[in-house]
């Protein structure tokens, strides 16, 4: 087939294309992923029984805000990495800021209570955190990968990592409603690691699955 | 491309809105631009240029929904072309070690960018490997120029199935090219 024939073939009846389809697709994936994570959390783990008291504690909101902020940064990164010729831009800074913020809080907490340091870091549920955040991230992981696969990431591994991190962060928001821990060092370490597991998995899978 | 970029962008935007003639013109201008862009970067593999031009055009078409009219067209096009170029070189790096028929007679004479050399890989042959539900809609609509309704009648498929068949078929064609080269 000559190139001119190919062009005629591609141009023939190509039809109109909706502008900025990725916005709607990502919005849908996010809603589906959050809904899935919440559902799994309620069915398999349960909302913490003392949630009515917990909402009065500032650290409860910090624990929600940290993954929510990371989700926003990861979403921006994923959207930008999904399309050719778009630089990642501020997304890197948006990802670094919440991590730095929680680490500052963690250091302050550790300095403020030297005798409780082991408890502040390890808590009582660190292992559950590492299992449950990746587990609750599965619906969002599938949904975000689905969207990304329909777009055109030119750096499949990096894009896959952003997709995985987004899924992990959405999952951590849901998990925060179950998890009894409230210490900043715990959140800055185990929540972050829990979210990085799907991110690493995303990089591995993305390398193969996201090629086009 | 700067001089042509605005014209090319305008044609693409009109094409994305459904203007078939503008889209056709856009792809034609684009193929000449891509040929120049890739020829410089594939100086050592001149026989592969036309294949890569075709592969990139197919990618541009398949991914045209990822273009944002507010984005510089050059950045978008070159990112796609570079992605396909790197993909080709990576595939080659694995194979070239075994048998490298590196051209004895390097074609040095200057060729204008509009002269398409023959592609070595025949997309028409690859097309034949697609399943009927994708191949037939492409053949009827894209090669014979039938409308969706006519193609649906000719194949006995629904109009929705015809459209899906074309869309998936062209993506499958891009995947075939990738996998074929990996063998």
Molecular structure report:
The complex is a heterodimer of chains A (212) and B (183). Chain A has 10 helices and no strands. Chain A has 212 residues and is an all-alpha fold. Chain A has one domain. Chain A is elongated. Chain A starts with a helix and ends with a helix. With 183 residues, chain B is mostly helical. Chain B has 2 domains: 96 residues, Rna Polymerase Sigma Factor, Chain: A; 72 residues, Orthogonal Bundle (Arc Repressor Mutant, subunit A). In chain B, α7 crosses α8. The two termini of chain B are 35 Å apart. Classes of the chains: A mainly alpha (212), B mainly alpha (183). At the A-B interface, α1 of A face α2, α3, α4, α5 and α6 of B.
In short:
Chain A has 212 residues and is mostly helical. Helix content of chain A is 75%, strand content 0%. In chain A, helix 7 (126-136) packs across helix 9 (156-175).
Question: How far apart are the termini of chain B?
Answer: 35 Å
Query: How do the helices and strands follow one another from N- to C-terminus of chain B?
Result: HHHHHHHH
Count of discrete structural domains of chain B: 2
Task: Please state the overall shape of chain B, judged from the principal axes of the Cα atoms.
Answer: globular
Number of domains of chain A: 1
The CATH architecture of the largest domain in chain B is Orthogonal Bundle
Order of helices and strands of chain A: HHHHHHHHHH
Tell me the fraction of residues in β-strands of chain B, as a range.
under 5%
Mean pLDDT of chain B: 84
CATH H-tier superfamily of the largest domain in chain B: RNA polymerase sigma factor, region 2, helix turn helix motif
Number of strands of chain B: 0
């Amino acid at each position: 087939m000559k190139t001119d024939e190919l062009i005629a073939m591609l141009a023939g009846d190509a039809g109109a294309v909706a502008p900025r389809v990725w916005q709607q697709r990502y919005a849908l994936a996010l809603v589906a992923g959050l809904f899935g994570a919440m559902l799994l959390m309620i069915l398999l783990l349960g909302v913490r029984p003392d949630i009515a008291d917990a909402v009065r504690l500032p650290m409860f909101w910090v624990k929600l805000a940290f993954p929510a902020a990371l989700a926003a940064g990861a979403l921006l990164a994923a959207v930008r990495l999904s399309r050719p010729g778009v630089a990642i831009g501020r997304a890197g800074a948006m990802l670094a800021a919440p991590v730095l913020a929680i680490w500052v809080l963690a250091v302050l907490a550790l300095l403020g209570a030297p005798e409780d340091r082991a408890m502040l870091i390890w808590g009582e549920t660190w292992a559950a955190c590492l299992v449950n955040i990746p587990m609750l991230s599965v619906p969002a992981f599938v949904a975000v990968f689905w969207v990304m696969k329909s777009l055109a990431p030119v750096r499949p591994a990096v894009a896959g990592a952003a997709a995985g991190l987004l899924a992990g962060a959405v999952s951590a928001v849901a998990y925060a409603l179950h998890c009894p821990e409230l210490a900043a060092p715990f959140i800055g370490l185990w929540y972050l690691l829990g979210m990085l597991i799907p991110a690493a998995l995303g990089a591995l899978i993305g390398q193969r699955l996201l090629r086009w | 491309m700067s001089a042509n970029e605005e014209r090319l962008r305008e044609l693409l935007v009109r094409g994305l809105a459904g203007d078939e003639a503008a889209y056709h013109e856009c792809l034609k201008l684009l193929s000449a631009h891509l040929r120049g862009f890739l020829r410089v970067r594939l100086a050592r593999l001149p026989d592969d240029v036309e294949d890569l031009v075709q592969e990139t055009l197919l990618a541009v078409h398949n991914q045209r929904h990822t273009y944002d009219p507010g984005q510089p067209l050059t950045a978008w096009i070159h990112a796609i072309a570079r992605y396909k170029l790197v993909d080709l070189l990576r595939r080659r790096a694995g194979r070239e070690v075994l048998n490298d028929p590196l051209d004895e007679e390097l074609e040095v004479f200057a060729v204008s960018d509009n002269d398409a050399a023959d592609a070595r890989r025949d997309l028409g042959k690859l097309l034949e490997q697609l399943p009927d539900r994708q191949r037939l809609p492409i053949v009827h609509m894209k090669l014979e120029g039938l409308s969706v309704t006519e193609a649906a009648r000719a194949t006995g498929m629904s109009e929705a199935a015809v459209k899906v068949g074309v869309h998936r078929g062209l993506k499958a064609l891009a995947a075939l090219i990738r996998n074929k080269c990996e063998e």
